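To fix ideas, we close by showing one paired sequence and structure record:
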Amino acid sequence: MQQIDRNRINEGRTVKVWDLFIRFFHWTLVLGCVTAFISGEVHASEIHVLTGYALCALLVARVYWGFKGSEFARFRSFIFSVGETLAYVRSMFGKHPCKHYFGHNPAGALMVFTLLGLLASLMVTGLVTLAAIDFEGPLVFLANVVSDETSYAFRHVHEFLSTVGLVLVAFHLMGVVGGSIQHNENLVKAMVTGKKELPANQNENGER
C-alpha cells in the first residue's frame, strides 16, 4: 500500500507526487522520441543521432533517479507482485473501480519498466548500427568486429523496436485516459504540476 507523508498534503488536499526531474524527464522523453522517430523517417541522420545521444543521457539519468530520487520516483515504490498486477488489470475491466494509487499503479508500473527496457534496447541497437554501418559513435571499435550481416540485423531490429514503441505509446495513452476516468483525476495535469488531488473518500494512507 502506498502511503503519503502528511507533510505532502496541503489544505486543498492535493498530494505532491511527481518531482521536477520526473516531470522534466517525461516531457523531454516525449519530445525526444517524437523527434527521433520523425528524423529517422525522413532520413535526417544528424538530428536523429544527436537526439539519440540526448535520449541515452536521459535514460541514464532516469535510472540513477530511480534509486536516488524522491519517494515516487524510486523504482522500489512501484514494484508490485504478479498477483497484485493481475488483480489491478482485472479490476480495470470489471464493475468495481480499480484501487487508487498515489504514484504509479501496477499497470502503469509495468508500462514504465517496459518502456524503459524498450528505450534501452533502442539505444543499444542504435549505437551498434551507428558504429558498424556508419563508423561513428562510442562503439566504433565494433566496426571491424561485427559482420555486415549482423550490422544490418541490428539496424532492422532498431527499426522494428521503434514500431513496437508506437504500439506501447498507444496503450500507455489509453491507460492514462482510462485511469483518469476511473479515478476521476487528471493524470496529464498531474504530470505537469506534480500534484494529485486526494480523493474525498480517501485518507493519506490510500484507504477509503
